[in-house]
Amino acid sequence: MTVKVFDLKCNYGHIFEGWFSSSDEFNNQRSKKIIECPFCASSEITKLVSAPYVNTHSGSDVTNKTKTDSLSDKTNIANTQINIIKGIRKILKEAEDVGSNFADVARKIHDGDAEKRSIKGTVTKEEHKSLQEEGIEVLSIPEFLEDPSSMH
Q1: CA distances (Å), 124 to each of 84, 100, 108, in order?
Q2: 103 vs 73, 109, 123, 132, 149, CA distance in Å?
């Protein structure tokens, strides 16, 4: 299966990557508000313009160097993404799961009424928005980033 990778941006300016089977699939999911920003859960998403590489130089040395540089860049990006996912999984593994009480516990920690610690759990879109408006940093993390060995 062919996958299209698009750079996406939410209405709050967060930039992230989305993988789709086609541009039509992206447009379909966006119109149904299925796509959400992993940072703030906003479903107001736009696709950023990305230009294809155009080789304006002649000669095989330039072409081969460009291909090598491009491969090296892609490898560096892939390694960075792997390290980020590993870091997120470590944080999630060490965080206390407070389930659906996340908003209440986050507020208590923020207000100094509870011990400061890493927590994870679930919130509704309304709770997420309310926490952000109160200045409480909340990060939405897709389930696929959970460590598969720790999932039930």
Answers
A1: 26, 9, 18
A2: 40, 10, 6, 11, 27
CA–CA separation, 87 and 140 (whole Å): 15
Q: Which pLDDT tens digit goes with each residue over 87-134?
A: 888 888 899 999 999 999 999 999 999 999 999 999 998 999 999 999
151 inside domain? no
**Helix 102-111 and helix 125-133, axial crossing angle in degrees, nearest 10:** 10
Q: Establish if 80 belongs to a structural domain.
A: no
For 99, the domain range is 94-135
The answer to the question of residue 85 being in a domain is no
Domains in the chain, number: 2
